[in-house]
Write a structure and sequence with these properties.
The complex is a heterodimer of chains A (495) and B (329). By secondary structure, chain A is an all-alpha fold. Chain A has 18 helices and one strand. The chains are: A mainly alpha (495), B alpha/beta (329).
Chain lengths: 495, 329
């Protein structure tokens, strides 16, 4: 018996518009989710391979987070059926046919029955052409792929060994075992190339700039270096309040020779406090130097509360800037225990970062006697000026830092204890000269030879100080650039 | 699946094409105006035409009535025009036996298309004589309610230039006009055609293309045009957005509008939207239809406050603002 015509029951039943729209939406969902998965995996994969020092769980978590966000975003734009119908109409120019047909099918339309049937028939007839508008073509997530490729490339080209110390700090902050070194006390002098090795000096300035210690007045004069002071932090400006929370690194150990000289508070403090343009200098008065996000490196004055504590504060300080950005210091002066001379690290990183005194605003340095004031103003450099040197005066901004191994630099840096000893020795022998050398080095003047011998020490101390704080990777480039500039200048001036 | 019956729609489209072609033999240019008038005709609504003298308002009404084979009357509104002059009244007439009796003599309102020329020159009392006719298609004379023949349309004109001795239409009457149309000045080419084709002699009469039953059939089909709930919701949003008391309304609406559009505006939007869809040969109303009719439907239903008058804000700009907010694109 020959086969007869296919009965109607064998034919696929025509899809209703609602089911058709549902099918379109499902296809769109799959494409969006697929796009999100591809993009998320690309970005997450890039994160996995990018930063060498970041713990795996951080990378994994971030990668999954990115993926989850992209999936959530893809799902959040899932349209309703009515919305999809309207979108199809708008895209296909069908003048509301799909939306009206859907309304007819769902009993949400008014009109003659014959015309309703006509609407449904028109929508069914147009469905094949409308499908292309309902389900947009799959789009390759170029953005996600690009980010992933960029992260991968970054990981391949720059493994960020120099970020290892920062990562160590992160680990310490997050409870990881690697942070023990930071938590236990001053980081031991790192060997060149090792994580935690000395970071070029400008790291401090960058950090100081980040903390708001940097002022434009200082930037104008190129001032950035301050030396010494006590554990109360870097001083800038004559404040009545005790110096602010401890500098990130200071040698306030009582057994340190030459430190904490009560009889010399003025000179030390003046040196320190004059750097950022003390004496109520308005930080905003001076034009910034190009690229000068430089912070002051100013030591704090001797702590009035603990004058016996001789500190070598390698910290950034600026009263006005501290007030402006860091806010008045509320922290207690750093205790001797917060020094790095074999002592535990200074407070927590937040303290160091936010260290700022209540000192009055500084004033940009002005020539004392017609000549250019090398760093601070004449007031600041005047030993008789008790406003800047009085016990407890000054506002400090704790220096922070990270220990980023500078690939080309650390080899010539001496171990940290040696550096400290030499700095302090130099200070004890005649602080002005030594400090001046450091200042001049920072200012690029370098009129004496002494700075070179001190530069390495200074850098080691600075980097060690910075090593105790996480330096954002974005800052690292700035720091390196500054140090490279310093090194280049030094090389040019070397005989 | 049975084939849908679209014969009604196809026949209507054919009728409308013939009607438009017939009108265009005499009425030159003004394509948009003609579309809007046909929209009101299909929706069974009244039209208020506003334009300077000589733009062809009266001609359009006359040609339309000729093409539709409808009874058209013209009423020239003047300050001394009385309501009875419009509705008609009882008069003493002599009967066949030689006696006298009171009989109703219908006024010009008893027609299919009433041209109320310069309607704003009539007194409010006379203007209000049209209220019942426009809304309920009936007039009450001598305590007796008389139904007007369908279709019934009032096409009123008013001159925007002369304000001396005029009586602005009250809001209640304005609301009864489905559309308020501004008659634009013809462009250069149209002016040339008008000059060449209308000065040779008498304007030719237009042959009727649709009879009265055909008009009623078109209007019935117009009411059957499908409106989806989403389009109706958009129309409701349009109306609500004209109300100054709502938080969602645009700031200019809250500032300049005194009264927003009435629920009758909602009806008018859907009626006019249906008619617009029918004119385009569609069986359903699209958001584009709403967008096309929103301005003529809403411009006379949005009543501006004193601040708008001082700032020179026109209702058209307010409606445009609302339109952009609710139906962008």
């Amino acid at each position: 018996m020959p086969p007869g015509p296919i009965p109607d029951l064998m034919r696929p039943s025509p899809l209703t518009l609602r089911s058709q729209l549902t099918q379109w939406r499902r296809t769109g969902d799959l494409r969006r989710v697929g796009r999100a998965v591809i993009g998320g995996v690309a970005v997450g994969g890039g994160l996995l391979v990018m930063p060498g020092g970041i713990p795996l769980w951080v990378r994994l978590g971030t990668g999954f987070g990115v993926l989850a966000v992209m999936l959530a975003r893809a799902w959040s734009v899932r349209p309703t059926l009515q919305g999809l119908a309207a979108a199809v109409d708008a895209s296909a120019g069908s003048k509301g046919l799909v939306a009206t047909a859907l309304a007819v099918e769902m009993g949400r339309a008014e009109g003659g029955s014959d015309l309703q049937g006509l609407v449904m028939a028109s929508a069914s007839a147009a469905a094949p052409q409308l499908a292309a508008h309902a389900v947009p073509a799959f789009r390759v997530p170029w953005t996600g792929l690009g980010i992933g490729a960029m992260l991968t490339l970054l990981g391949a080209v720059a493994p960020l060994e120099h970020a290892a110390p920062a990562m160590a700090t992160i680990r310490a902050a997050t409870g990881g075992g690697a942070g023990a070194e930071s938590a236990a006390g001053p980081v031991s002098p790192a060997e060149p190339g090792e994580p935690g090795a000395a970071l070029p000096m400008a790291s401090m300035q960058t950090v100081a700039g980040r903390q708001g210690v940097h002022t434009e007045a200082r930037a104008r004069s190129g001032e950035m270096v301050g030396v010494s002071g006590n554990g109360a932090g870097a001083a800038a400006g004559a404040g009545a309040a005790p110096a602010a929370a401890g500098p990130s690194w200071d040698a306030s150990a009582p057994d340190r020779p030459g430190s904490g000289r009560p009889d010399q508070p003025a000179s030390a403090s003046q040196q320190l406090m004059s750097r950022p343009g003390t004496e109520r200098g308005d930080a905003d008065e001076g034009p910034p130097i190009p690229g000068g996000n430089q912070g002051a490196f100013a030591g704090g004055p001797e702590d009035a509360d603990d004058p016996g504590n001789a500190d070598v504060a390698l910290s950034t300080g600026g009263g006005e800037a501290s007030e402006r950005e860091g806010g008045p210091a509320e922290e207690e002066p750093a205790s001797p225990a917060q020094t790095n001379a074999g002592a535990p690290p200074v407070g927590d990183s937040e303290e160091r970062r936010e260290g700022a005194g209540d000192g009055d605003e500084g004033r940009p340095g002005e020539p004392a006697d017609g000549g250019p004031a090398p760093i601070g103003g004449e007031d600041a450099r005047s030993k008789d000026d008790t406003r800047t040197t009085g016990p407890g005066a000054g506002a400090g901004s704790g220096a922070v830092g990270t220990a980023e191994a500078e690939a080309e630099g650390p080899g010539r840096l001496p171990p940290l204890p040696d550096a400290l000893a030499r700095i302090e020795l130099a200070w004890s022998k005649g602080g002005d000269g030594t400090l001046r050398a450091v200042e001049e080095a920072a200012l690029g003047q370098r009129t004496t030879q002494s700075w070179r011998s001190l530069h390495g020490d200074y850098t080691a101390v600075a980097e060690q100080t910075l090593a105790r704080d996480a330096l954002p990777p974005a800052r690292a480039a700035v720091v390196r650039r500054y140090f490279n500039a310093l090194s280049a200048d030094a090389a040019k001036e070397s005989p | 699946m049975s084939q849908p019956d679209n014969s009604r729609l196809e026949a209507a489209c054919a009728d409308l094409r013939r009607l438009e072609a017939a009108i265009r033999t005499v009425f030159i240019g003004q394509h948009g105006l003609l579309q809007d008038v046909l929209t009101a005709l299909l929706a069974g609504g009244n039209v208020l035409l506003e334009g300077s003298p000589g733009l062809g308002k009266t001609l359009l009404v006359r040609v339309l009535s000729q093409a539709l084979a409808l009874d058209a009357r013209r009423i020239q509104f003047t300050p001394d025009l009385m309501p009875a002059d419009i509705t008609g009244g009882t008069t003493l007439i002599r009967d066949e036996q030689g006696g006298t009796k009171l009989a109703f003599r219908p006024g010009p309102v008893f027609a299919n298309i009433v041209l109320a020329d310069e309607i704003n020159r009539g007194t409010p009392k006379t203007q209000s004589a049209l209220l019942e006719a426009m809304q309920e298609r009936a007039v009450t004379v001598g305590g007796e309610r008389r139904i007007l023949d369908a279709p019934f349309h009032v096409i009123a004109t008013q001159n925007p230039i002369e304000h001396e001795g005029t009586y602005p239409l009250p809001e209640a009457q304005l609301d009864r006009f489905l559309l308020k149309l501004l008659v634009p000045f013809p462009d250069r080419d149209e002016l040339v055609r008008i000059g060449l084709e209308t000065t040779r002699g008498a304007v030719p009469a237009v042959e009727p293309v649709i009879d009265r039953s055909g008009v009623l059939r078109l209007q019935a089909l117009c009411r059957d045009i499908v409106v989806g709930s989403d389009v109706a919701a958009q129309a409701a949003d349009l109306v609500l957005a004209t109300h100054p008391g709502r938080e969602e309304s645009p700031s200019d609406v809250r500032r300049f509008v005194r009264y927003g559009a009435s629920p009758r505006a909602m009806q008018a939007l859907l009626q006019a939207g249906r008619a617009r869809a029918l004119l385009e040969g569609r069986a359903w109303v699209s958001p584009d239809d709403l967008r096309a009719v929103a301005l003529p439907v809403l411009r006379h239903r949005v009543h501006l406050g004193l601040e708008a008058e001082l700032e020179g804000i026109a209702s058209e700009s307010i409606v445009g603002l609302v339109l952009d907010g609710v139906l962008p694109g």
